[in-house]
């Protein structure tokens, strides 16, 4: 595994936590691009941080950057294959991208992992 470059000067774990929380707020305030910018530095310093990757995937999705969103959701699922939310969100991303068969697969996985009403409805098991 190649060595990671050192974090930018002035960057610290505390700064990354602050940036992550600020990114959550930006996404809630409907500024997904701002959230992505903050999360880029967090993920550069902590590429293994699944929570930051999931938040960045949500921000990409909210910004209608569907390919980067799908890539991030897929990376999360490589690390956490039982993450029902990531399956559901990836399914929504495929749905918006015009890939209904891929969407159906992930909707069904989400519902099987966590049978909450939204996931079950989207899975359309009766079809």
Describe the protein's topology.
Elements: H1 13-28, H2 32-45, H3 50-62, H4 66-79, H5 84-96, H6 100-113, H7 117-123
Description:
This is Tetratricopeptide repeat protein. It comes from Streptomyces vinaceus. Keywords: Repeat, TPR repeat. There is one protein chain. The model is unreliable at 1-9 (pLDDT under 50). The longest helix has 16 residues, at 13-28. This protein starts with 12 loop residues before the first helix and ends with a helix. It has 2 domains: 12-65; 81-127, no CATH class. With 127 residues, it is mostly helical. 72% of the residues lie in helices and 0% in strands. The protein has helices spanning 13-28, 32-45, 50-62, 66-79, 84-96, 100-113, 117-123.
Summarize the structure.
The chain is mostly helical and 127 residues long. The protein has seven helices and no strands. The chain has two domains: 54 residues; 47 residues, no CATH class.
Give the tags.
single chain, 127 residues, 2 domains, 72% helix, TPR_2, TPR_rpt, TPR repeat
**Number of domain units:** 2
In the predicted model, the low-confidence regions spanning at least 5 consecutive residues are 1-9
Alpha carbon gyration radius: 16 Å
Assembly type: single chain
- State mean pLDDT (0 to 100 scale): 92
Structure class = mainly alpha
Q: What is the β-strand count?
A: 0
Work out the strand percent: under 5%
Give the biggest beta sheet.
Answer: none
N-to-C CA distance: 45 Å
Task: Please report the number of helical segments.
Answer: 7
Helices and strands, in N-to-C order? Answer: HHHHHHH
Summarize the amount of helix as a percent range.
over 70%
Overall form: elongated
């Amino acid at each position: 595994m190649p060595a990671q470059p050192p974090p930018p000067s002035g960057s610290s774990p505390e700064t990354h936590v602050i940036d992550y929380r600020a990114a959550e707020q930006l996404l809630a305030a409907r500024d997904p691009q701002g959230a992505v910018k903050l999360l880029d530095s967090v993920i550069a310093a902590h590429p293994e941080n699944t929570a930051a990757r999931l938040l960045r995937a949500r921000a990409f999705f909210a910004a209608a950057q569907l390919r980067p969103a799908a890539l991030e959701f897929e990376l999360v699922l490589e690390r956490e294959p039982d993450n029902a939310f990531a399956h559901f969100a990836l399914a929504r991303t495929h749905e918006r991208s015009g890939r209904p068969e891929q969407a159906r697969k992930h909707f069904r996985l989400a519902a099987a992992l966590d049978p909450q009403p939204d996931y079950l409805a989207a899975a359309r098991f009766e079809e």
